[in-house]
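Sequence, please.
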């Protein structure tokens, strides 16, 4: 870990591109984790990492927000269930929740979320992903989350993420 106490976890190449181009994080501070969030959180504990920036798009982060730590769709896929529930918690009608639940992709679900003005769903995803990851490590690794979409538009960044990004740029 080169002596660093913090790093960024991204799921793949899109995550690397976003972290470097949009967040300004040096590539040497970024680790691609693929679908193996839980395994990599365990490794972070093992290597003495204290702070992680988790950066990803909705398809992966909504799973983390729901406590799913192996994100391959073959293993677990509750994306629409989680999104529909979060939309309901943010005041969506049953009809809108059904529309979200019926979506095939998170991109399609985002269109409904945006059209209905349910932007706080994005905050809920980021904040819950951070909390679930920190809890997963029994508080040993503080996690902050950045959520972006497939067009590299920042959807939400929690307060913890903001602090970790500043640290990663040093």
């Amino acid at each position: 870990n080169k002596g660093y106490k913090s790093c960024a976890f991204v799921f793949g190449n899109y995550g690397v591109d976003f972290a470097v181009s949009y967040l300004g994080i040096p590539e040497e501070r970024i680790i691609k984790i693929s679908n193996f969030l839980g395994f990599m959180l365990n490794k972070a504990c093992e290597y003495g990492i204290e702070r992680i920036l988790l950066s990803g798009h909705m398809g992966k982060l909504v799973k983390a927000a729901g406590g799913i730590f192996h994100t391959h769709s073959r293993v677990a896929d509750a994306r629409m269930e989680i999104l529909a529930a979060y939309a309901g918690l943010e005041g969506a009608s049953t009809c809108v929740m059904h529309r979200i639940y019926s979506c095939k992709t998170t991109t399609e679900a985002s269109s409904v979320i945006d059209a209905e003005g349910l932007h706080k769903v994005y905050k809920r995803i980021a904040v819950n992903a951070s909390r679930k990851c920190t809890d997963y490590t029994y508080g040993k690794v503080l996690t902050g989350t950045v959520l972006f979409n497939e067009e590299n538009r920042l959807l939400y960044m929690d307060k913890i993420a903001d602090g970790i990004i500043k640290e990663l740029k040093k």
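The two ends are 16 Å apart (CA to CA).
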